[in-house]
């Protein structure tokens, strides 16, 4: 079962695995993910310690809510145009988009705030 409307963009998982989150590698992938009704974006950088700390909780939420939303990681060093589009000023930044409209934003390593926003909109 595909989580997006554009099946060709995301490669299917290996046998025995399931989708839980995507690491965005192109603008086309992001646009395809945004076609889903509920999307959680994590803007991160590999050199940022708070981003590395938030990886585990982000992935755990992605697994727990994989049927309700698409969870995507966007590397700020690779996608400066996307960073500007969503006005990301600090890392990590999490956005909850419902039907393409921002419904919540969490800036910083705040697991409780992120969880509250996701639970309130799913």
UniProtKB/TrEMBL annotation:
Pfam families: Thioredoxin
Domain Thioredoxin: 1-122
Membrane-crossing residue ranges in chain numbering: none
CDD domains in alphabetical order: TRX_family
Alphabetical list of SUPFAM superfamilies matching this protein: Thioredoxin-like (SSF52833)
Superkingdom per UniProt: Eukaryota
PANTHER family linked to this entry: OS09G0559600 PROTEIN, THIOREDOXIN
Name of the protein in its database record: Thioredoxin domain-containing protein
Organism: Aegilops tauschii subsp. strangulata (Goatgrass)
